[in-house]
Amino acid sequence: MARGAGQSRMAMHLSRKFRALAALLCAASVAACSHSTSAPGAGASPAPAVIKIGIDLPLSGADASVGRSTLNGMLLAIAQANAKGLPGKFKLETMQLDDAVQGVHSPEQGVSNVKTMIADPSVLAMLGPYNSNVASAEIPVTNGAGLAQISPSAVSDGLTLGADAATLRRDNPAQNAFFRVCTTDSRQGSAAAAFALKFGWKKAYIIDDDETYGLDLANVFEHDFAAKGGTILGHDHIAKNTQDFKSLLTKIAATKPDLIFFGGTTSTGAGLIRQQMFDTGLGKVAFMGGDGIPDIATVAGPRADGTYYTLAAPNAQKLPSAQAFIKAYEAAYHKPIGPYSANAYAAAQVATVAIEHAIVAAKDAMPTRAQVLAQVAKTTDVRTPIGPISFDANGDVRQPVLSLYTIKNGKPVFLDQINLK
Amino acid sequence: MHEFLAQLVNGISLGGIYALIAIGYTMVYGIVELINFAHGDVYTLGSFFSLAILTALGATGELHGSVLVIDVALSLVGAAVCCGLIGVLIERLAYRRLRNAPRLAPLITAIGVSFILENVMQAWKGSAPLPFPDVLPNPTFALGPVSVSMQQLVVVALALVAMVSLQIFVSRSKTGKAMRAVAQDRQAALLMGIDVNRTIAITFLIAGVLAGIGGFVSGVYYQSTWFLNGFGAGLKAFTAAVLGGIGNLPGAMLGGFSIGIIESFATWKLGGQWSNVTVFAILVIVLIVRPSGLLGRRTQEKV
Hints:
The complex is a heterodimer.
Chain A: H1 2-38, E1 50-57, H2 64-84, E2 91-98, E3 100-101, E4 104-105, H3 107-119, E5 123-127, H4 132-145, E6 148-151, H5 162-168, E7 178-180, H6 185-198, E8 203-208, H7 212-227, E9 231-237, H8 246-253, E10 259-263, H9 266-277, E11 286-289, H10 297-300, E12 307-311, H11 323-333, H12 341-361, H13 369-377, E13 382-384, E14 387-389, E15 401-408, E16 411-419
Parallel strand pairs in A: 1-2, 1-5, 5-6, 6-7, 8-9, 8-10, 10-11, 11-12
Antiparallel strand pairs in A: 3-4, 12-15, 13-14, 15-16
Chain B: H1 2-32, H2 39-56, H3 65-95, H4 104-125, E1 130-131, E2 140-143, E3 146-149, H5 150-172, H6 174-184, H7 186-191, H8 196-222, E4 224-225, H9 229-244, H10 249-270, H11 275-289
């Protein structure tokens, strides 16, 4: 208790200092920016001018296994764009920042990373973050700065839709700077409900982790599952950093569910819940979640078998358009692709295509962030491993495809996919 | 009724782990009046040591017969001994020089040691939760209308044995007498020829051993461990020690079991997000009514 209070006091103190520092950096970046736009005009400089793409992902800790494979997808697309050559002899570089603090993705760290990117005038677009709660902290900052932001995987509805999204864009309501190549929670929850009923699971108990992503997903699942004739036995929220779920699961076991649906990620509880289901007589009951739990076997070990999850992406292995990407990925990293590698590659493709268009529009001069943002918003049928990508006015993809997987012998097995329009 | 008993068993098992940690807080407080915030992390370190020993022995799944007994014993004793030594080392390096400093200095040092241990564990095994091999066969026994698993029996049995032997040790042995004397009046104990440094080191050793046992037990019970577990568990165990009356051994046990049971029932009746709120609300109420805790008396005998 003493420790918590001490930390928050320290954070307050730091944030005051940080604001002063940020103000200084802003002033510096304005000066630097005017300098660098005049630089390419000089023409014959031997070194190619550099455009940076910021990348913000959880690269350490519990989310690192998915964070790394996501990063690799982005780096591959950027390397390929460099190899092909950009107009105006520009070269792409990345600024990679980790938003995990002590092993868990942190919205505060995400915001601090985005401010670092904005302070560097050569950063013209950013990719990430991985998690919705981090995105919801970052969007006001990128929106205010007019920096185009493309997430491979942040699926919470409120990031692009409705009153929540309007609040996030409060600094600059006329402009949207946040885009995503994945679909949304509501579609993921709907798809999960449809799949569950298709398998004949009629009675579900819902648990969520009380975070932006998990709560949304669980609520949409609850609504759709009940609307389509399923029975909801109960809906519980769990506290952060809980280790013991046996009391909760004992209570759930008494309701005799066909299915336990979890809104959240492996690190916020899915792994431990799946494991403790076996200690409370629920080992044979199906366990289902969204795209937060593909890495559940890293925590639950052999007990992960019998877990089902949706991905807000098509199965890249099954798409003809993805074969070249998968080959290139495996050749570069000697590993199979991760759950969001293809999405990450697609997000980076959207960014590089927009940057190329912006360079052409600026007549081979260094484009501005506003020009790049305008090009990202205009994205139409960019051909990616997950299909052609076009954005609507909210920054969402126009043709969302979702897929369902299960875990067998510790490995993900593809089951089904649907196209929700 | 059946569910009530099942939740009671869950609560007692969880409480057993809290009690094992709470004893460490209460003993150290009793003897040097220091809230050793690093203690929760020593507990996590216990599960890391057990995991490392089991991995080194090649135990990955359920074990049987003599292999089971040997591996479990080595892992348990190894974790207990290592944690005991770590406890002594922490006291020697971080706290001893500050024994006569203002009270805040060792407290802040304890928080610092806690961060150091957390980061050492993160560097050692990474920051993701780790699966713990499911070594114990887990048959369930029917105790009347309620079924109790082998793991739960092991948790409770180990906790009880550890606590009873500790109680006997403190009240009967010569070292226990020395501990009580140092707790009452360090100067006088010194004048009577008691080796105060040695007595305090033994206190930290015992606290560490119990934390190590707790770490092993939690690994077996949850089949997982994580470098930050000690923060949450340590906070609850510290609460248990305060609830029971800090400085009082039976109080720490009572507090640990109470908090486990309260948490379990709160999750059952109010939902998981209310369990922590309920625990701390009850703590506040108890402290208003009985500021020295459930069993805390205003006597000078503290261990």
